[in-house]
Design a protein that fits this description.
Elements: H1 9-26, H2 45-49, H3 55-66, E1 69-74, E2 77-82, H4 85-92, H5 119-136, H6 141-159, H7 168-185, H8 194-207, H9 211-219, H10 230-255, H11 264-278, H12 286-316, H13 319-332, H14 348-360, E3 370-371, E4 376-378, E5 381-383, E6 388-391, H15 393-397, H16 436-458
Parallel strand pairs: 2-6
Antiparallel strand pairs: 1-2, 3-6, 4-5
Helix pairs in contact: 6-7, 6-16, 7-12, 8-10, 8-12, 12-14, 12-16, 13-16
Length: about 475
Protein backbone atom coordinates (compact mmCIF):
# COMPACT_ATOMS: atom_id res chain seq x y z
CA UNK A 1 0.00 0.00 0.00
CA UNK A 2 1.54 3.32 -1.06
CA UNK A 3 1.89 6.13 1.46
CA UNK A 4 1.07 9.59 0.18
CA UNK A 5 2.75 12.66 1.70
CA UNK A 6 1.24 15.97 0.71
CA UNK A 7 3.71 18.87 0.75
CA UNK A 8 2.57 22.30 -0.30
CA UNK A 9 4.94 24.50 -2.24
CA UNK A 10 5.68 27.01 0.59
CA UNK A 11 6.70 24.16 2.92
CA UNK A 12 9.12 22.83 0.32
CA UNK A 13 10.66 26.28 -0.12
CA UNK A 14 11.01 26.85 3.66
CA UNK A 15 12.54 23.41 4.11
CA UNK A 16 15.01 23.93 1.28
CA UNK A 17 16.07 27.34 2.60
CA UNK A 18 16.47 25.94 6.12
CA UNK A 19 18.61 23.08 4.83
CA UNK A 20 20.73 25.48 2.76
CA UNK A 21 21.27 27.77 5.75
CA UNK A 22 22.30 24.86 7.99
CA UNK A 23 24.78 23.63 5.38
CA UNK A 24 26.17 27.15 4.99
CA UNK A 25 26.46 27.61 8.75
CA UNK A 26 28.17 24.27 9.36
CA UNK A 27 30.54 24.41 6.36
CA UNK A 28 33.81 26.29 6.43
CA UNK A 29 35.09 28.57 3.69
CA UNK A 30 37.21 26.84 1.07
CA UNK A 31 40.82 26.15 2.15
CA UNK A 32 40.11 27.55 5.63
CA UNK A 33 42.21 26.38 8.62
CA UNK A 34 40.86 23.34 10.50
CA UNK A 35 39.09 23.73 13.81
CA UNK A 36 36.34 22.61 16.20
CA UNK A 37 32.72 22.19 15.20
CA UNK A 38 30.16 24.75 16.26
CA UNK A 39 26.45 25.02 16.94
CA UNK A 40 24.03 26.70 14.53
CA UNK A 41 23.72 30.45 15.26
CA UNK A 42 26.00 30.34 18.34
CA UNK A 43 29.05 28.68 16.79
CA UNK A 44 31.65 27.69 19.40
CA UNK A 45 30.39 30.05 22.12
CA UNK A 46 28.62 27.18 23.99
CA UNK A 47 31.99 25.41 24.32
CA UNK A 48 33.00 28.14 26.79
CA UNK A 49 29.67 28.09 28.59
CA UNK A 50 29.49 24.37 29.36
CA UNK A 51 32.95 23.85 30.81
CA UNK A 52 34.74 24.51 34.06
CA UNK A 53 37.95 25.21 32.18
CA UNK A 54 39.31 28.69 31.74
CA UNK A 55 38.77 30.03 28.24
CA UNK A 56 42.50 30.18 27.57
CA UNK A 57 42.77 26.46 28.36
CA UNK A 58 39.95 25.68 25.92
CA UNK A 59 41.87 27.55 23.23
CA UNK A 60 45.05 25.67 24.19
CA UNK A 61 43.27 22.30 23.91
CA UNK A 62 42.27 23.21 20.36
CA UNK A 63 45.89 24.14 19.60
CA UNK A 64 47.00 20.64 20.60
CA UNK A 65 44.23 19.16 18.45
CA UNK A 66 44.40 21.33 15.33
CA UNK A 67 47.87 22.90 15.26
CA UNK A 68 49.41 26.38 15.24
CA UNK A 69 46.73 27.92 13.01
CA UNK A 70 43.12 26.90 13.50
CA UNK A 71 39.69 28.40 12.95
CA UNK A 72 36.33 28.48 14.68
CA UNK A 73 32.93 30.07 14.29
CA UNK A 74 31.86 32.49 17.00
CA UNK A 75 28.25 33.45 16.44
CA UNK A 76 28.15 34.64 12.84
CA UNK A 77 31.87 35.50 12.69
CA UNK A 78 34.74 33.39 11.45
CA UNK A 79 37.82 33.50 13.69
CA UNK A 80 41.40 32.37 13.01
CA UNK A 81 43.58 31.79 16.08
CA UNK A 82 47.36 32.14 15.71
CA UNK A 83 49.43 30.04 18.11
CA UNK A 84 53.01 30.50 16.92
CA UNK A 85 55.52 33.34 16.75
CA UNK A 86 55.93 32.76 13.04
CA UNK A 87 52.24 33.02 12.18
CA UNK A 88 51.71 36.09 14.39
CA UNK A 89 54.71 37.88 12.93
CA UNK A 90 53.83 36.98 9.34
CA UNK A 91 50.23 38.11 9.80
CA UNK A 92 50.46 41.31 11.80
CA UNK A 93 53.25 42.99 9.86
CA UNK A 94 51.03 42.87 6.77
CA UNK A 95 48.64 45.80 6.14
CA UNK A 96 45.74 43.52 5.23
CA UNK A 97 45.71 42.10 8.79
CA UNK A 98 46.20 45.33 10.76
CA UNK A 99 42.58 46.51 10.86
CA UNK A 100 40.51 46.15 14.01
CA UNK A 101 36.88 44.99 14.07
CA UNK A 102 34.25 47.64 14.63
CA UNK A 103 32.80 47.39 18.12
CA UNK A 104 29.79 49.63 17.67
CA UNK A 105 28.44 48.90 21.14
CA UNK A 106 31.43 50.83 22.57
CA UNK A 107 30.76 53.97 20.55
CA UNK A 108 29.40 56.48 23.04
CA UNK A 109 31.05 59.23 21.04
CA UNK A 110 32.18 59.86 17.47
CA UNK A 111 35.81 59.50 16.51
CA UNK A 112 38.52 56.85 16.37
CA UNK A 113 41.36 56.05 18.71
CA UNK A 114 44.55 54.08 18.21
CA UNK A 115 43.54 50.73 19.71
CA UNK A 116 40.47 50.05 17.56
CA UNK A 117 40.89 52.49 14.67
CA UNK A 118 41.57 51.66 11.02
CA UNK A 119 42.87 53.19 7.82
CA UNK A 120 44.73 56.42 7.21
CA UNK A 121 43.27 58.21 10.24
CA UNK A 122 44.49 55.39 12.49
CA UNK A 123 47.96 55.40 10.91
CA UNK A 124 48.46 59.13 11.41
CA UNK A 125 47.06 59.09 14.93
CA UNK A 126 49.20 56.12 15.90
CA UNK A 127 52.36 57.78 14.60
CA UNK A 128 51.55 61.04 16.37
CA UNK A 129 50.62 59.46 19.72
CA UNK A 130 53.74 57.30 19.71
CA UNK A 131 55.85 60.39 19.12
CA UNK A 132 54.27 62.48 21.86
CA UNK A 133 54.45 59.53 24.25
CA UNK A 134 58.18 59.44 23.64
CA UNK A 135 58.36 63.21 24.17
CA UNK A 136 56.40 63.17 27.45
CA UNK A 137 56.90 59.55 28.48
CA UNK A 138 59.76 57.09 28.69
CA UNK A 139 63.10 58.79 29.37
CA UNK A 140 61.42 62.10 30.16
CA UNK A 141 62.32 63.49 33.58
CA UNK A 142 58.73 64.33 34.56
CA UNK A 143 57.59 60.83 33.57
CA UNK A 144 60.31 59.26 35.70
CA UNK A 145 59.43 61.54 38.59
CA UNK A 146 55.77 60.48 38.34
CA UNK A 147 56.72 56.80 38.48
CA UNK A 148 59.10 57.31 41.39
CA UNK A 149 56.43 59.24 43.31
CA UNK A 150 53.72 56.62 42.78
CA UNK A 151 55.87 53.50 43.19
CA UNK A 152 55.95 53.85 46.97
CA UNK A 153 52.20 53.78 47.51
CA UNK A 154 51.44 50.04 47.00
CA UNK A 155 54.24 48.92 49.32
CA UNK A 156 53.39 51.63 51.85
CA UNK A 157 49.87 50.20 51.89
CA UNK A 158 51.36 46.81 52.76
CA UNK A 159 53.44 48.31 55.53
CA UNK A 160 50.44 50.11 57.00
CA UNK A 161 48.10 47.11 56.77
CA UNK A 162 49.20 45.89 60.22
CA UNK A 163 48.29 42.30 59.43
CA UNK A 164 44.91 43.13 57.91
CA UNK A 165 43.83 41.80 54.52
CA UNK A 166 44.14 44.43 51.77
CA UNK A 167 43.45 44.44 48.04
CA UNK A 168 46.86 45.12 46.53
CA UNK A 169 45.44 45.32 43.01
CA UNK A 170 43.47 48.39 44.07
CA UNK A 171 46.59 50.18 45.31
CA UNK A 172 48.66 49.27 42.25
CA UNK A 173 45.86 50.40 39.94
CA UNK A 174 45.74 53.74 41.77
CA UNK A 175 49.47 54.22 41.24
CA UNK A 176 49.47 53.24 37.56
CA UNK A 177 46.45 55.43 36.78
CA UNK A 178 48.13 58.41 38.40
CA UNK A 179 51.25 57.83 36.29
CA UNK A 180 49.16 57.81 33.12
CA UNK A 181 47.19 60.83 34.33
CA UNK A 182 50.42 62.74 34.96
CA UNK A 183 51.73 62.18 31.44
CA UNK A 184 48.30 62.62 29.79
CA UNK A 185 46.77 65.49 31.80
CA UNK A 186 49.70 66.89 33.76
CA UNK A 187 48.09 66.14 37.11
CA UNK A 188 47.75 63.41 39.69
CA UNK A 189 44.89 62.68 42.07
CA UNK A 190 44.86 61.93 45.77
CA UNK A 191 43.98 58.31 46.42
CA UNK A 192 40.96 59.25 48.50
CA UNK A 193 39.58 61.54 45.77
CA UNK A 194 36.01 60.27 45.22
CA UNK A 195 35.90 61.23 41.55
CA UNK A 196 39.22 59.48 40.91
CA UNK A 197 38.03 56.33 42.68
CA UNK A 198 34.81 56.39 40.68
CA UNK A 199 36.77 56.52 37.41
CA UNK A 200 38.98 53.62 38.50
CA UNK A 201 35.88 51.58 39.27
CA UNK A 202 34.55 52.36 35.79
CA UNK A 203 37.88 51.27 34.26
CA UNK A 204 37.43 47.94 35.97
CA UNK A 205 33.89 47.62 34.61
CA UNK A 206 35.23 48.24 31.10
CA UNK A 207 38.26 45.96 31.26
CA UNK A 208 36.93 43.06 33.32
CA UNK A 209 34.09 41.45 31.32
CA UNK A 210 34.33 37.71 30.78
CA UNK A 211 35.22 36.35 27.38
CA UNK A 212 31.72 34.85 27.21
CA UNK A 213 29.89 38.12 28.01
CA UNK A 214 32.12 40.18 25.73
CA UNK A 215 31.88 37.53 23.03
CA UNK A 216 28.10 37.66 23.10
CA UNK A 217 28.16 41.41 22.42
CA UNK A 218 30.67 41.06 19.58
CA UNK A 219 29.48 37.85 17.92
CA UNK A 220 25.75 38.04 18.69
CA UNK A 221 25.12 41.79 18.35
CA UNK A 222 21.45 41.60 19.33
CA UNK A 223 22.53 40.82 22.92
CA UNK A 224 23.91 44.37 23.18
CA UNK A 225 20.40 45.64 23.74
CA UNK A 226 19.44 43.22 26.49
CA UNK A 227 19.03 45.13 29.79
CA UNK A 228 21.79 44.51 32.35
CA UNK A 229 24.03 42.94 29.68
CA UNK A 230 27.80 43.42 29.90
CA UNK A 231 27.76 45.83 26.95
CA UNK A 232 25.21 48.07 28.68
CA UNK A 233 27.46 48.34 31.73
CA UNK A 234 30.49 49.10 29.55
CA UNK A 235 28.65 51.92 27.74
CA UNK A 236 27.54 53.49 31.02
CA UNK A 237 31.11 53.34 32.35
CA UNK A 238 32.45 54.95 29.18
CA UNK A 239 29.93 57.78 29.53
CA UNK A 240 31.11 58.41 33.11
CA UNK A 241 34.72 58.54 31.93
CA UNK A 242 33.68 60.87 29.07
CA UNK A 243 32.21 63.38 31.54
CA UNK A 244 35.40 63.22 33.64
CA UNK A 245 37.53 63.71 30.53
CA UNK A 246 35.44 66.66 29.26
CA UNK A 247 35.96 68.54 32.53
CA UNK A 248 39.74 68.15 32.23
CA UNK A 249 39.65 69.16 28.55
CA UNK A 250 37.81 72.41 29.35
CA UNK A 251 40.46 73.24 31.98
CA UNK A 252 43.27 72.53 29.51
CA UNK A 253 41.72 74.64 26.77
CA UNK A 254 41.36 77.56 29.17
CA UNK A 255 45.00 77.35 30.32
CA UNK A 256 46.56 76.31 27.00
CA UNK A 257 49.96 77.92 26.40
CA UNK A 258 51.88 76.99 23.27
CA UNK A 259 55.11 78.07 24.98
CA UNK A 260 54.54 75.72 27.92
CA UNK A 261 53.51 72.27 26.70
CA UNK A 262 53.15 70.09 29.79
CA UNK A 263 51.48 66.86 28.70
CA UNK A 264 49.97 64.73 25.93
CA UNK A 265 46.67 66.63 25.93
CA UNK A 266 48.50 69.92 25.37
CA UNK A 267 50.39 68.40 22.44
CA UNK A 268 47.17 67.07 20.94
CA UNK A 269 45.35 70.40 21.37
CA UNK A 270 48.20 72.08 19.50
CA UNK A 271 47.86 69.54 16.69
CA UNK A 272 44.11 70.27 16.51
CA UNK A 273 44.86 74.00 16.14
CA UNK A 274 47.28 73.21 13.30
CA UNK A 275 44.65 70.99 11.68
CA UNK A 276 42.11 73.83 11.84
CA UNK A 277 44.45 75.96 9.74
CA UNK A 278 45.24 73.15 7.31
CA UNK A 279 41.66 71.84 7.17
CA UNK A 280 42.82 68.41 8.39
CA UNK A 281 40.19 67.88 11.09
CA UNK A 282 39.44 64.39 9.77
CA UNK A 283 42.52 63.15 11.68
CA UNK A 284 43.07 65.50 14.61
CA UNK A 285 39.89 66.67 16.31
CA UNK A 286 38.27 66.68 19.75
CA UNK A 287 36.56 63.30 19.32
CA UNK A 288 39.69 61.52 18.12
CA UNK A 289 41.65 63.05 21.00
CA UNK A 290 39.10 61.62 23.43
CA UNK A 291 39.56 58.08 22.12
CA UNK A 292 43.35 58.35 21.79
CA UNK A 293 43.78 59.36 25.43
CA UNK A 294 41.13 56.86 26.54
CA UNK A 295 43.21 54.15 24.85
CA UNK A 296 46.22 55.17 26.93
CA UNK A 297 44.20 54.77 30.10
CA UNK A 298 42.39 51.56 29.22
CA UNK A 299 45.38 49.77 27.67
CA UNK A 300 47.86 51.12 30.17
CA UNK A 301 46.10 50.94 33.52
CA UNK A 302 44.75 47.39 33.44
CA UNK A 303 47.62 45.58 31.72
CA UNK A 304 50.33 47.35 33.70
CA UNK A 305 48.47 46.78 36.96
CA UNK A 306 48.17 43.06 36.30
CA UNK A 307 51.82 42.75 35.26
CA UNK A 308 52.98 44.51 38.43
CA UNK A 309 50.63 42.44 40.55
CA UNK A 310 52.06 39.22 39.14
CA UNK A 311 55.62 40.52 39.63
CA UNK A 312 54.85 41.21 43.30
CA UNK A 313 53.36 37.76 43.74
CA UNK A 314 56.17 35.96 41.96
CA UNK A 315 58.77 37.71 44.09
CA UNK A 316 56.89 37.02 47.31
CA UNK A 317 56.57 33.34 46.38
CA UNK A 318 60.22 33.05 45.32
CA UNK A 319 62.32 34.46 48.18
CA UNK A 320 65.55 33.20 46.58
CA UNK A 321 64.92 35.42 43.54
CA UNK A 322 63.85 38.28 45.81
CA UNK A 323 67.16 38.01 47.68
CA UNK A 324 69.22 38.10 44.47
CA UNK A 325 67.44 41.08 42.95
CA UNK A 326 67.60 42.96 46.24
CA UNK A 327 71.38 42.51 46.25
CA UNK A 328 71.66 43.74 42.66
CA UNK A 329 69.47 46.78 43.34
CA UNK A 330 71.44 47.68 46.45
CA UNK A 331 74.71 47.38 44.54
CA UNK A 332 73.67 49.44 41.52
CA UNK A 333 71.09 51.86 42.93
CA UNK A 334 71.73 51.85 46.65
CA UNK A 335 69.16 52.41 49.37
CA UNK A 336 68.91 56.20 49.19
CA UNK A 337 67.28 56.69 45.80
CA UNK A 338 64.94 55.04 43.31
CA UNK A 339 66.23 53.58 40.03
CA UNK A 340 66.24 55.84 36.97
CA UNK A 341 65.80 54.90 33.35
CA UNK A 342 69.55 55.11 32.83
CA UNK A 343 70.04 52.33 35.42
CA UNK A 344 68.17 49.67 33.42
CA UNK A 345 71.17 48.35 31.44
CA UNK A 346 72.94 47.74 34.77
CA UNK A 347 70.00 45.78 36.24
CA UNK A 348 69.83 42.60 34.12
CA UNK A 349 68.08 40.54 36.79
CA UNK A 350 65.36 43.18 37.14
CA UNK A 351 64.88 43.06 33.37
CA UNK A 352 64.72 39.27 33.53
CA UNK A 353 62.11 39.37 36.31
CA UNK A 354 59.98 41.78 34.27
CA UNK A 355 60.23 39.53 31.20
CA UNK A 356 59.41 36.39 33.17
CA UNK A 357 56.46 38.12 34.83
CA UNK A 358 55.19 39.19 31.42
CA UNK A 359 55.56 35.63 30.15
CA UNK A 360 54.14 33.63 33.02
CA UNK A 361 51.59 36.19 34.19
CA UNK A 362 50.74 37.64 30.80
CA UNK A 363 48.13 40.35 31.20
CA UNK A 364 46.16 39.14 28.19
CA UNK A 365 46.06 35.47 27.21
CA UNK A 366 44.42 36.42 23.91
CA UNK A 367 45.26 39.59 22.02
CA UNK A 368 42.62 42.09 20.99
CA UNK A 369 41.38 40.80 17.60
CA UNK A 370 42.48 42.07 14.23
CA UNK A 371 40.37 41.64 11.12
CA UNK A 372 41.23 40.76 7.52
CA UNK A 373 40.68 43.85 5.36
CA UNK A 374 40.70 41.80 2.12
CA UNK A 375 40.66 38.18 1.01
CA UNK A 376 44.17 37.04 1.90
CA UNK A 377 46.49 34.06 2.22
CA UNK A 378 48.39 33.01 5.34
CA UNK A 379 50.68 29.98 5.59
CA UNK A 380 48.85 28.28 2.74
CA UNK A 381 45.34 28.95 4.06
CA UNK A 382 42.76 31.26 2.50
CA UNK A 383 41.54 33.96 4.91
CA UNK A 384 38.31 35.62 3.71
CA UNK A 385 37.71 39.34 4.17
CA UNK A 386 36.17 40.11 7.56
CA UNK A 387 37.73 37.12 9.35
CA UNK A 388 38.85 37.94 12.90
CA UNK A 389 42.53 37.22 13.64
CA UNK A 390 43.41 36.49 17.29
CA UNK A 391 47.00 35.88 18.50
CA UNK A 392 47.09 33.39 21.39
CA UNK A 393 49.82 34.56 23.77
CA UNK A 394 49.08 31.93 26.38
CA UNK A 395 50.07 29.06 24.08
CA UNK A 396 53.20 30.86 22.91
CA UNK A 397 54.37 31.66 26.44
CA UNK A 398 53.71 28.16 27.84
CA UNK A 399 54.77 26.00 24.88
CA UNK A 400 56.89 23.12 26.21
CA UNK A 401 58.79 23.08 22.89
CA UNK A 402 59.95 26.67 23.40
CA UNK A 403 60.36 26.98 27.17
CA UNK A 404 61.94 24.61 29.69
CA UNK A 405 59.51 24.00 32.57
CA UNK A 406 57.13 26.72 31.31
CA UNK A 407 54.99 26.66 34.48
CA UNK A 408 58.00 27.58 36.63
CA UNK A 409 58.94 31.16 37.53
CA UNK A 410 62.57 31.22 36.42
CA UNK A 411 63.91 34.68 35.45
CA UNK A 412 67.34 33.21 34.73
CA UNK A 413 65.99 31.91 31.41
CA UNK A 414 66.47 35.51 30.19
CA UNK A 415 70.12 35.70 31.32
CA UNK A 416 73.23 34.35 29.60
CA UNK A 417 76.01 32.51 31.40
CA UNK A 418 77.62 35.84 32.37
CA UNK A 419 74.41 37.18 33.89
CA UNK A 420 73.62 39.59 31.04
CA UNK A 421 70.02 40.11 29.97
CA UNK A 422 69.07 38.32 26.75
CA UNK A 423 65.99 39.43 24.83
CA UNK A 424 64.06 36.49 23.40
CA UNK A 425 62.14 36.75 20.15
CA UNK A 426 59.42 34.43 21.45
CA UNK A 427 58.40 36.90 24.17
CA UNK A 428 56.00 39.35 22.51
CA UNK A 429 53.65 40.49 25.31
CA UNK A 430 52.55 43.48 23.23
CA UNK A 431 52.24 41.58 19.94
CA UNK A 432 53.77 42.64 16.64
CA UNK A 433 52.66 45.79 14.91
CA UNK A 434 49.98 46.64 17.48
CA UNK A 435 49.40 50.01 19.04
CA UNK A 436 50.58 49.28 22.55
CA UNK A 437 53.96 47.85 21.54
CA UNK A 438 55.61 51.14 22.50
CA UNK A 439 53.12 52.42 25.05
CA UNK A 440 52.80 49.18 26.96
CA UNK A 441 56.43 48.15 27.01
CA UNK A 442 57.59 51.61 28.11
CA UNK A 443 55.15 51.96 30.98
CA UNK A 444 55.25 48.37 32.22
CA UNK A 445 58.99 47.95 31.97
CA UNK A 446 60.01 51.16 33.71
CA UNK A 447 57.32 51.12 36.39
CA UNK A 448 58.19 47.48 37.09
CA UNK A 449 61.80 48.48 37.71
CA UNK A 450 60.81 51.08 40.29
CA UNK A 451 58.22 48.84 41.90
CA UNK A 452 60.64 45.91 42.13
CA UNK A 453 63.13 48.13 43.93
CA UNK A 454 60.48 49.50 46.28
CA UNK A 455 58.95 46.12 47.10
CA UNK A 456 62.32 44.49 47.77
CA UNK A 457 63.41 47.37 49.98
CA UNK A 458 60.18 47.82 51.94
CA UNK A 459 58.24 44.55 51.73
CA UNK A 460 57.21 43.29 55.18
CA UNK A 461 59.02 40.12 56.15
CA UNK A 462 55.74 38.41 57.06
CA UNK A 463 55.02 38.09 53.32
CA UNK A 464 58.27 36.34 52.51
CA UNK A 465 57.89 33.25 54.65
CA UNK A 466 55.25 31.02 56.15
CA UNK A 467 51.50 31.50 56.13
CA UNK A 468 51.67 35.23 55.42
CA UNK A 469 52.79 34.63 51.86
CA UNK A 470 49.95 35.22 49.34
CA UNK A 471 49.20 32.28 47.08
CA UNK A 472 49.21 32.32 43.30
CA UNK A 473 45.80 31.77 41.79
CA UNK A 474 44.07 32.88 38.63
CA UNK A 475 40.64 34.17 37.73
CA UNK A 476 38.35 31.94 35.67
CA UNK A 477 37.19 34.19 32.87
CA UNK A 478 38.81 37.60 33.02
CA UNK A 479 40.24 39.20 29.88
CA UNK A 480 43.31 39.91 31.96
CA UNK A 481 44.65 37.13 34.14
CA UNK A 482 45.18 38.15 37.74
CA UNK A 483 46.96 36.72 40.69
CA UNK A 484 45.55 36.65 44.19
CA UNK A 485 44.92 40.30 44.98
CA UNK A 486 44.01 39.88 48.64
CA UNK A 487 47.01 40.31 50.96
Amino acid sequence: MAVSIDLDFPSVIVGAITFWLLVKIMNRPKNFPPGPWGFPVFGCLPHFLFTRKRSRDVFKDWYYQYGPIYSLKMGSAYVVVLNSIESIHDALIRPEFQDRPRLDFLLVRKGEGIALGNGKVWQEQRKFVHQIFRDFGVGNASFEDAIVEEANFPTDALLQSDGKVINLEHHISNAVSNIISSVSFGQRFEYDDKKFQCILAKFEDIMQPSILRFGLSVFLPFTQYIPFSGSTKIRESLKTYMNFYDEITIEHQAKFDVENMKDIMDAYLLEIKKSNKNERLDVFNDDNMFWAIADLFFAGTETTTITLLWAFLFLLNNPDVEKKVKAQLNKVVGRNRMPRYSDRPKLPLVEAIISESLRLGTASALSVPHTAATDSELHGYTIPKGTLIIPNFHVIFTDENKWDEPAKFYPERFLDKDGNYVKRDDLIPFSTGVVDSVLGSSLQGWSSSSSSHTSCRKCPSRFLTGEGRPQLKESMESFTDQGSTKF
